[in-house]
Design brief:
Length: 337
């Protein structure tokens, strides 16, 4: 007698094929998957091109360096998904760095310095949020002005001089220490990524962020407090920029008022390349992670292959253009434009 039911053997044979098909579709049809493929290929090429690339020391330095960009990019992903942007994160690295170094030198207390740094990041972000959300100034313009203001404050605070070094061992460990074989900056980033991935994908707030960026009028009609959600995204970005600033400060062991030049372009470029829409409503923390790693490996390869370092700046600009083009193409393909 015939039956439509498949045998257990046949079902088991089909399951891996289904999983394989899903993986292939993800790799070839999503921006995150394509970035992953490019990242793997680039790593293979650099492994053959430079014997230094895959050494433990180089990998540790590379991951420590990109961790600072990645931490801030987690917050920027939420903010751009919500329909806003913050151009002042590079200047924050300078100002927060010099202030935190001054506080630590005066108090000899690492905890106080960290709290001041986080509070300062939240304060600067709140000022940007007020200008954007309540004074109705476009976030691009508001945070561009904040970029100049905060950079100027960093020069004024130090009288254009580099801050003194500190001798606190715990402070030096933040940027240069290890937890077993893992550098502290990488461990900090891993914790930040897990926390915000869960927030973005599993919580009501994460859904609110996407709804507000997708259509703020519809979100407001649904009872979402649009300005409060956006303000929270500004503050999260500012505080994560503070974390990056403290890690950089520890790595350099000096507060430098010229730190962070171009940092905002690295962060925004990675977020957009990772698949977050510049128009808001769509974001991917995994895509941002792959994009940060890709840019970090690319810049590392430029250095290892002794290519003119000026290309690092040019690459960041080209990446932003590519990311905006891909986003516009995606929006047209789904009929959003």
């Amino acid at each position: 007698m015939q039956t439509d039911a498949r045998s257990p053997v046949s079902a088991n044979l089909d399951a891996p094929q289904s999983s394989t098909t899903t993986l292939v579709n993800w790799l070839l049809r999503t921006q995150e998957g394509i970035l992953f493929i490019i990242l793997v290929v680039l790593c293979v090429v650099l492994t053959f091109a430079s014997p230094v690339f895959l050494t433990g020391r180089n990998v540790g330095v590379l991951l420590s360096q990109v961790s600072m960009t990645a931490i801030t990019a987690m917050g920027m992903t939420l903010l751009i998904t919500a329909g806003e942007v913050d151009l002042s994160v590079g200047s924050m690295q300078a100002f927060i760095g010099v202030v935190v170094m001054s506080v630590i030198n005066q108090t000899q207390d690492l905890f106080t310095g960290i709290i001041v740094g986080l509070a300062l990041g939240a304060l600067i972000a709140t000022v940007s949020a007020i200008a954007t959300l309540w004074l109705r100034i476009n976030s691009l313009i508001a945070t561009l002005a904040m970029l100049s203001i905060v950079r100027g404050l960093s020069y004024a605070f130090t009288s254009a001089a580099v801050q003194n070094r500190t001798t606190l061992p715990a402070f030096a460990a933040i940027g240069n220490g290890f937890i077993g074989p893992i550098p502290w900056p990488v461990a900090i980033f891993a914790a930040v990524f897990v926390i915000f991935y869960l927030i973005f994908s599993r919580t009501t707030f994460g859904r609110y962020v996407q709804a507000v960026g997708g259509n703020k009028r519809a979100a407001a009609m649904a009872g979402i407090r649009v300005n409060m959600v956006k303000w929270a995204c500004f503050v999260i970005t500012g505080m994560l920029a503070s974390v990056s600033a403290i890690i950089l400060l520890s790595r350099l062991n000096s507060g430098q008022n010229n730190a962070g030049f171009g940092f905002e372009l690295e962060v925004i470029g990675a977020v957009l390349l990772g698949g977050t829409s510049l128009q808001g409503g769509r974001g991917s923390l995994i895509g941002t992670l792959f994009a940060v790693l890709l840019l970090g490996v690319l810049n590392n390869g430029i250095i290892l292959l002794d290519i003119n370092s000026s290309w690092q700046v040019a690459v960041n600009g080209l990446i932003i253009l590519l990311a905006v083009f891909l986003d516009a193409r995606r929006r047209r393909s789904v009929g959003e434009d």
